[in-house]
Amino acid sequence: MKEKTLDHLSNFINKILIIFFLSAIPCVAFSEEKSANLIENKWSFDGIFGTFDRASLQRGFQVYQEVCSGCHSIQHLSYRNLAEEGGPEFTEDQAKAIAKQFEVIDGPNSEGEMFNRTAKLSDKFVKPYPNVEASTAANGGAYPPDMSVLAKAREGGANYIYSLLLGYEEAPVDFDLDDGVYYNKYMAGQKIKMSSPLDDDLIEYSDGTQATTEQMAKDVTTFLVWASEPHLENQHKMGFKTIIYLIILLTLVYLSKQKVWSRFDNKKDSKNEEDTFDKVEEIVTQYEGEDPKSFK
Amino acid sequence: MSEEKYIPKSKLGQWFDSRLPLLTLSHHLQAYPTPKNLNYWWTFGGILTFCLITQIITGLVLAMHYVAHVDHAFQSIEHIMRDVNYGWLIRYVHANGASMFFLAVYIHIFRSLFYGSYKSPREVIWIIGLLIYILMMATAFMGYVLPWGQMSFWGATVITNLFSAIPFVGESITTWLWGGYSVDNPTLNRFYSLHYLLPFLIFGLVILHIWALHVPGNNNPIGIDVKKNRNETMPFHPYMVMKDLTALLVFIIIFLWFVFFAPNVLGHPDNYIEANPLVTPAHIVPEWYLLPFYAILRAIPSKLGGVIFMFSAIFILMLLPWLDTSKVRSAIFRPIYKKLFWVLVFVVILLGYLGAKPPEGIYLTLSRLATAYYFIHFLILLPFLGRYEKTDPLPQSISDPVLDKPGVLEKVKKAASAYEGENVGSFK
User: Fold this and answer.
1) Residues 10-39 in B contacting A (C-alpha not used; CB under 8 Å)
2) Chain A neighbors of B243, CB-CB under 8 A
3) Tell me: the pLDDT tens digits for B309-361?
């Protein structure tokens, strides 16, 4: 009687299990609520061997310089980064020449005065506006985000930036758009205050590459990914080496462990033999009496 | 505890050991008898110790470069990522280390639940473990605030606001916690100070946790007491050390895979946006390891109720040794409990999933059901099961061949009797 109740209980629990697993299905189904699927690009920096395409980084810097930098700062990059390994790898002279185009305020000097000087390699990228408020005011109340870690600060990363740059469209007829607001199918709410920044042949690439919108979007995205993760190449290289090293070490440790444990197993066997021997001796003593000599 | 008295070999050793028995301690740690049938789920204690030490060391280095000020915190993190030598590596190890720490602690806790390691005589180990877990959550929460990103700021705002639900004194407590009238520089500073302090408290509790473990010794997958004189235990060193090391290396490989190839997947992208008190993120979510409790918090319609249920969900575990009335430890011999265990695992994961979703529609309904089930499991099902569950027969010892396969015992008995018969015959 009692066992039957328990069987029922067991069946009941099985049913609960099934119901719970089924209940997971709507969760998965409901989770598809994104505005539009991002364009999935194949990036050279993806994957464990991912590296940056130098030429693309250099072109991307040019796009940033000529198009984005009017409004967007990259406050955490320094001009010296442009010449460092794993980045666009401009020569030091090129990087110096880039820095020279900018003026920074330095000081105070020995007279207590602030003064202007041309930027050096050690300076951070000069911002287009002195502060967030100025930048917001100049851009119709929308702050153009600093691009230092932009690629890490958006769901979808590189694909998001790339998609957004190519996501400008005519707004649907019934879509309400205020002045100075544009329609972009990848932006949350489809409303963006930045007008489409790229256009075919907007700039002239110094390496002669055809400056199509897609090309520029790709290059500047690559540049921004590097800007937010300047050590990415080193990270991948080091990661690969470390993991290979650990796998070899693991193999050796595992084999040693097996060896060490086999010692215990052997010991156990010999111990068992001893136990058996003790038992046998006991029985024999019973048979032969207390005198162990007669055993022979 | 090792039975035989340890006496150092050298004269100097004896002199020192009689004044401070460090050598005895070291000998005890090496000789500590562990059941020979411990499986790989038992390696997480060592893994967790590794995690704690890693967090403390990387944290120490990060603290040398971090600036706890609302105007500089976010910038100083980027300084660490870009300009400090291998700063990116240290920070990614620390950030992912927190996630890995929780991954390991959850496995450790569920292992304990499955094999009944919280039962007599190990209740104190269990309770100390839970205290460690609570401190870990506090430490992780405060650590997440330090980068001063959007999720840092708004997470801190949401969680500290919970205390305002306490009747009468709630508002004052929140103001006291903040050191002002909103989450601001004083809050960041005290969180930094406490984030530095708590790991050392955890370290102290870990020592107590291990000490309390070494009194009764390890539980084991069979869940019956180990007979130490029957060759059922092996010394901790080198046997368990080698096994722990093997598991630790597998764990480190997974850990570093995240660090090098996906260092940000476990975090939220919004935390790379500097904190802005004027802009609220669309969804405020805590780190993944706190999500189940976040789901419980939001499942309850009243704020105070939510807070009470959320804290009860943790503190109820403290009573577990007395709520689970079954004398049988291991789920292997408890057919119904075994199923309920997996239901609980599923419900907790479901709660975690729901914690990341907005509290509306189907998500809210499901989180209410899952919350209800969580409490029913501990408060109703476990006490009931202990009384009525028909458990499978327990083996006599952990070396009993019944463990390997059902039916083997009969065969062994037959063979043994045949063998004995022969032997007895041959003696005559």
Assistant:
1) 36
2) 257, 261
3) 999 999 999 999 999 999 999 999 999 999 999 999 999 999 999 999 998 99
